[in-house]
Design brief:
about 270 residues, mainly alpha
Length: about 270
């Protein structure tokens, strides 16, 4: 449905409005300049002491010709920017008409999508648990997180990271069997950076360290998997905090010592 709706050109409309306003300002200035140059030519053509100053007249005629040419260009620019502004306004109006025409259908689709999201959320814990117990988990999860650890802390962190990956795949329709988040989203003028993709990609990059930190926090083994996604998320968060504190310990503050005065300053 959205593909049938003209794309949002509000930015282009603002730019066209600003250009049209600037063109009007330039036209007013050019008009004043042409009027002033005409007055200067009229003044130069008057006889002084019975003679005419040919040099002053020539200079005034040149300035008037140039100002009139600038005035013509300014008028053309006003016409061009006015036409562009009118076209952008028409495009914006067409977009609003298309949005109004598809409003009910888009509202219904949003409702259905929310129901699907809710259903996926409700079953995600069960799906992650099934994957964790599977002897052959999906390639994309093994590639991203490795095998399911044996300790309670490591397992909870693994499940928490797996849940983040599955949530992203559910929300974005990712079906790639080898890339956990699918190909990296393209970024452009109309494609802002996907912060959620970047956040989870960073978690995957740090997965080994997160799982290891969670294992050190809770190394107990030989138990059943926790079935509470909050417990998984808490394990990941605590592991990340431990990693951050460890980095701070390993990177002490550098103290700048005063250099000896060689007596060269003045």
């Amino acid at each position: 449905i959205l593909r049938t709706v003209p794309r949002d050109r509000s930015g282009a409309l603002r730019d066209a409005g600003a250009q049209a306003q600037r063109a009007e300002e330039i036209l007013r200035f050019a008009d004043l300049q042409a009027e002033r140059c005409a007055q200067e030519l009229n003044q130069a053509t008057r006889r002084q002491w019975g003679k005419r100053n040919k040099t002053a007249i020539s200079d005034a005629e040149w300035r008037l010709a140039r100002s009139e040419a600038d005035l013509v260009n300014a008028r053309e620019r006003v016409t061009q920017t006015g036409e562009q502004l009118a076209a952008e306004r028409a495009a914006e109006a067409a977009r609003h008409r298309a949005l109004d025409a598809t409003n009910d259908m888009r509202t219904e689709l949003r409702r259905v999508l929310l129901e699907i999201d809710a259903a996926l959320d409700d079953t995600r814990v069960e799906r992650v648990l099934a994957i964790a117990h599977d002897d052959s988990p999906p390639c994309y999860l093994v590639e991203a997180l490795g095998e399911v650890p044996g300790s309670r802390g490591g397992q909870r962190a693994w499940c928490g990271l797996a849940a983040e990956i599955e949530r992203y795949r559910d929300r974005h329709g990712v079906t790639n069997e080898f890339l956990a988040l699918g190909p990296k989203p393209r970024v452009g003028m109309n494609r802002p950076v996907d912060k959620n993709w970047s956040r989870i990609d960073k978690m995957i990059e740090d997965a080994d360290d997160i799982i290891e930190a969670a294992h050190e926090l809770d190394p107990v083994s030989g138990h059943s998997l926790a079935t509470d996604s909050r417990t998984w998320a808490l394990s990941v968060n605590e592991a990340q905090r431990r990693m951050e504190s460890t980095r701070q310990i390993e990177m002490p503050e550098i103290v700048m010592e005063a250099e000896p005065d060689l007596g060269l300053s003045w």
